[in-house]
Design a protein that fits this description.
There is one protein chain. By secondary structure, the protein is mainly alpha-helical. Helices cover 92% and strands 0% of the residues. The protein has one domain. The chain contains two helices and no strands. Helix 1 packs antiparallel against helix 2. It starts with a helix and ends with a helix.
């Protein structure tokens, strides 16, 4: 696997960890406690983590596609 694919996987794991183990439980806690300002803050954090997770996966897909194109040119 190329260095950029490894970088993308590492970023994807980092943002997935932040999303599922930090921000999502904090959002659920804020919703249950009916704290509107905290809820909005955590909703923004969950949204941002999700966007960065998807962008990291795009890096992985792009690097895999580039490796496949390079392999076809060498044949």
């Amino acid at each position: 696997m190329g260095i950029s694919a490894t970088y993308g996987v590492a970023l994807s794991l980092l943002f997935a960890w932040g999303l599922w183990f930090q921000d999502m439980p904090a959002l659920e806690k804020a919703v249950k406690s009916n704290a509107h300002h905290e809820e909005m803050r955590h909703r923004i954090n969950v949204f941002a983590d999700g966007v960065w997770f998807l962008l990291a996966n795009i890096i992985v897909l792009n690097s895999i596609a580039a490796m496949n194109q390079t392999g076809k040119k060498n044949e």
